[in-house]
């Protein structure tokens, strides 16, 4: 594969995982598109979503901040967008960027036009698009919610609730079912040289992209190189799951999914002797690298992650 800074990459995800992936990818390409989940219903995003019926802006804001220009103006605007109101008033907890984006959406008919305007302020290197044209809700089937009935299957609703549950998530779905993908997200996938899925919260930031039929079909049919990035470790909604179980969950939610590479940190692979086989079941080669921050946190190091991306994309 011929690779250059002009090659196009589409990165899927949400929240901190997507922010990290974009921070790494911008080191190796100037043509980046972030396709972001729109099911967040907690915090500032949830409040704006409930009040105005808009897409939740928080994950979109974080992706824009990750793509900010390298100059002083771009970095300053990114810092402003990420900052939050303090105090006890009605604006307390709101990110300034969330309010700006929601305000622009009230003035413009197309949410993407508002995101592009914010991108101009930040002098972003790339674009940010919502994965769907409508705000979505996540529902999950879980075990162990009731300690008196640990084998009873229960339903949880809402991204914020699912992300924080201590019960064992079995599967997730989107409401409404089979939502429309945003047309520009589909177009970006079809024009991509590579697509990257993950890292991020498995049930609420990674799998949801595969539950939007048009988006799933575009991912399946694209000739682009397809890379799945595993998390540094199992945490929160997948606490206790092996790396292999993460792959199995993707296959259960999107049985026809095919990938080229599964990228995992050496520490997460550990003694999981089945991971190579599970990756191969999706048509993928397992790539193991040291991509974790060495400060003890469960975060990817953007520089190491960029090096790993570069190696996979030029091979």
Automatic annotation (TrEMBL):
The keyword Cytoplasm applies. The keyword Hydrolase does not apply. Belongs to the gluconeogenesis factor family. It holds the Pfam family CofD. It comes from the Bacteria. HAMAP family: Gluconeogen_factor. Its main location: cytoplasm. Signal peptide: none annotated. Required for morphogenesis under gluconeogenic growth conditions. This is Putative gluconeogenesis factor. PANTHER family: GLUCONEOGENESIS FACTOR-RELATED, UNCHARACTERIZED PROTEIN YVCK-RELATED. Keywords: Cytoplasm. InterPro entries: CofD (IPR002882), CofD-like_dom_sf (IPR038136), Gluconeogen_factor (IPR010119). It is found in: Cytoplasm. Gene3D superfamilies: CofD-like domains. It comes from Arachnia rubra.
């Amino acid at each position: 594969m011929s690779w250059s800074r002009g090659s196009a990459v589409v990165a899927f995800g949400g929240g901190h995982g997507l922010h990290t992936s974009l921070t790494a990818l911008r080191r190796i390409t100037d043509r980046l598109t972030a396709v972001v989940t729109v099911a967040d219903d907690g915090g500032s995003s949830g409040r704006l979503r409930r009040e105005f019926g808009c897409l939740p802006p928080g994950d979109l804001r974080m992706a824009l901040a990750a793509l900010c220009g390298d100059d002083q103006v771009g970095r300053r605007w990114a810092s402003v967008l990420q900052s939050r109101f303090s105090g006890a008033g009605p604006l307390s907890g709101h990110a300034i960027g969330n309010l700006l984006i929601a305000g622009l959406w009230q003035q413009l008919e197309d949410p993407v036009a508002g995101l592009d305007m914010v991108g101009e302020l930040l002098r972003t290197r790339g674009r940010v698009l919502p994965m769907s044209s409508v705000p979505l809700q996540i529902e999950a089937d879980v075990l162990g919610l009731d300690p008196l009935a640990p084998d009873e299957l229960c339903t949880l609703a809402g991204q914020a609730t699912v992300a924080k549950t201590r019960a064992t998530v079995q599967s997730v779905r989107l409401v409404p079912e089979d939502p429309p993908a945003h047309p520009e997200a589909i177009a970006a996938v079809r024009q991509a040289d590579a697509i990257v899925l993950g890292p991020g919260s498995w049930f609420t930031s990674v799998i949801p992209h595969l539950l939007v039929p048009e988006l799933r079909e575009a991912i399946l049919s694209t000739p682009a190189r397809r890379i799945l990035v595993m998390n540094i470790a199992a945490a929160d909604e997948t606490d206790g799951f092996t790396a292999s179980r993460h792959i199995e969950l993707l296959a259960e939610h999107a049985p026809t999914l095919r990938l080229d590479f599964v990228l995992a940190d050496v520490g997460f692979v550990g003694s999981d002797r089945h991971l190579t086989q599970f990756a191969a079941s999706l048509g993928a080669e397992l790539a193991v690298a040291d991509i974790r921050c060495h400060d003890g946190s469960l975060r990817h190091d953007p520089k190491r992650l960029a090096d790993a991306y570069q190696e996979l994309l030029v091979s």
